[in-house]
Design a protein that fits this description.
It is a single chain. The protein is built from 12 helices and 6 strands. The termini are close together. α1 crosses α2 (about 35-45), α1 runs antiparallel to α4 (about 70-85) and α4 packs parallel to α6 (about 115-125). It has a 6-stranded parallel β-sheet with strand order 3-2-1-4-5-6, with helices on both faces. The protein has helices spanning about 20-30, 35-45, 50-60, 70-85, 90-100, 115-125, 125-130, 135-140, 145-155, 170-180, 195-205, 215-225, and strands at about 5-10, 105-110, 135, 165-170, 185-190, 210-215. The protein has 2 domains: about 5-15 and about 85-235, Rossmann fold (3-Layer(aba) Sandwich); about 20-85. The chain is of the alpha/beta class.
C-alpha cells in the first residue's frame, strides 16, 4: 500500500490575502527602511512568541533606532489586526472536502507568525484539524525557501519526496525549493501579476517547470483529483 502527501501553503493560497503582509504593516507603522522591514520580517516568521509583548522585546533589539514603547504599540496593533482578520479563501473548505477519500495525508507548510495561527485556532478550529502535519516557520525557526523546512516536511510525512506534493502560489518560496527537495509541485497562479517575471522565466526555459499549474482553488481541486489517486486505486 502506498500513500501520498499534499502540503499546502496558507497565505494567498488557502487564506484571503490582505493588501499588506505583517512585516509591511509593521514597517508602515514604524517608518522602517526596507532593510529593517526584511530584518523584522525574518524575526516575525521564525520566532514562536505567544504574545505581542515578548515579540516586541526581541524586535526592539533589532530595531534599536525605535523606542521600545513605540515598537510595542505597533506590534500590538498589527498582531490584533492579523489575529482578528484571519479568513479562509471561499473555496478552501470545499477543496479540503474534495480530498477526503483520496490516498493522501494533508499538511500545511507555511511561512506564518503566531497571531495567524492563534486566529485560526480561535475562529476556525475545524480547519486545522483536517491536517495531519502542521509545518509552520515560527515553530521551526526557519522559513521558506530554506531547504530545512522542506526537509522537515518530508521527515514528518515519512515517505519518498516524489510522493509528496507542494501546492502554493509563490514560485520562489514554494515551487523552486520543493523541486530541489525532489517533491512534485502544483503552482496556484492566484496572483499572476506578482509572479509575472518568474512565469516568463519558466516559459522561456530559464527556470524549471512545475508539474502542474492552476488559476484558482476549484481548478486545483479538479487537478488534484486527477493527480492523486483514490484509496481504491492504491498501488
Amino acid at each position: 500500500m502506498s500513500e501520498f502527501a499534499v502540503f499546502l501553503d496558507l497565505g494567498n493560497t488557502l487564506l484571503r490575502s490582505g493588501a499588506w503582509s505583517a512585516r509591511r504593516r509593521l514597517g508602515q507603522r514604524l517608518g522602517l527602511t526596507e532593510k529593517e522591514v526584511k530584518r523584522a520580517g525574518r524575526l516575525l516568521m521564525t520566532r514562536p512568541h505567544e504574545t505581542p509583548e515578548t515579540l516586541a522585546v526581541d524586535l526592539s533589539q533589532v530595531l534599536s533606532s525605535r523606542e521600545p514603547g513605540e515598537v510595542l504599540d505597533a506590534v500590538r496593533t498589527v498582531w490584533r489586526e492579523q489575529h482578528d482578520g484571519v479568513a479562509l479563501h471561499p473555496d478552501a473548505m470545499r477543496l479540503l472536502a474534495s480530498l477526503e477519500g483520496r490516498s493522501c495525508r494533508l499538511g500545511l507548510l507555511s511561512n506564518v507568525w503566531p497571531p495567524v495561527i492563534q486566529g485560526l485556532e480561535a475562529s476556525l478550529p475545524s480547519f486545522l484539524k483536517r491536517f495531519d502535519h502542521l509545518i509552520f516557520s515560527c515553530r521551526l525557526g526557519f522559513k521558506k525557501p530554506s531547504a530545512a523546512i522542506f526537509e522537515a516536511a518530508l521527515a514528518m510525512a515519512g515517505m519518498p519526496a516524489h510522493r509528496c506534493w507542494m501546492v502554493g502560489d509563490s514560485y520562489e518560496l514554494d515551487m523552486e525549493p520543493a523541486m530541489k527537495a525532489g517533491m512534485r509541485t502544483l503552482w496556484v497562479l492566484s496572483r499572476p501579476e506578482a509572479e509575472k517575471g518568474l512565469l516568463a522565466a519558466v516559459l522561456r526555459g530559464d527556470k524549471p517547470r512545475p508539474d502542474a499549474a492552476v488559476e484558482d482553488l476549484m481548478e486545483l481541486s479538479l487537478m488534484l483529483e486527477r493527480l492523486v489517486p483514490s484509496r481504491e486505486n492504491w498501488s
